[in-house]
Amino acid sequence: MVTSLKRSPTRAILCIHGGGASPDIFRFQLAGFRAALKEDFEFVFATAPHVAVPGPDVLPFFAGMKSFFSWFRKGATDTEGEVAVFNEAIKMAVQDWQLENEHVKIVGVLGFSQGGLASTVLLWEQEVGLVPWLPRLEFGVLVCCAYSDVATDYIRSKSEGGDIAKISVPTLHLHGSQDCNLGQARDTLATHYSSKVAHVINFEGGHHIPQKREDITKMTNYIRHLGKKDTMHY
């Protein structure tokens, strides 16, 4: 009898949790998504640098999973400093992963809410060559992404001629029909992403990670087929 051995994934997705959450909470929120892609990807969870109050819908369900963290602090006046601290947190997560998993390359990023905004900053920094330590991200997944005028103004100030360079790697944007921040997600998409490679999946739900099987299937099918030349339809 021949026993077939399952290969471990050789690619990984960097996961950036929402504001007022944590890696442990994000692992739980992504359980269905991770299970669907367990043969395709490993998942790397970064920890935001600032202790924070719990984010929207974190309590009471995750009350026992303290502490809570955010990527950017509301009202912070030194935007460049905030981005530098954010970069260091991501760099630490990436380097820790690489030390233990040298044969599993980080190839994508997945962010939720404020983590989607953080992912946008990271993808833009990659676009203009500001994060040479970062493994090349081939795609991004943004779920119920936040928008920030402060982040946009920062990006504009760092852009040549004041014109914002659009993110050109393929991206998937998940928008909840009842999300209170749906307008923010659409603003971030329109402002920072190239329409040629950005794909939107709308799902019935609010400000949360999609949990329905059909939504997870759409997400995972898209990611598996990233890089193909044929246009995908859902």
UniProtKB/TrEMBL annotation:
GO terms of molecular function: hydrolase activity
UniProt KW Hydrolase keyword: yes
SUPFAM superfamilies assigned to the protein according to its UniProt record, in alphabetical order: alpha/beta-Hydrolases
GO process terms (BP): secondary metabolite biosynthetic process
Domain Serine hydrolase: 10-218
UniProt keyword annotations, A-Z: Hydrolase
Signal peptide coordinates: none
Family (UniProt): Belongs to the LovG family.
Name the UniProt record assigns to this protein: Oxidoreductase
Originating species: Colletotrichum scovillei
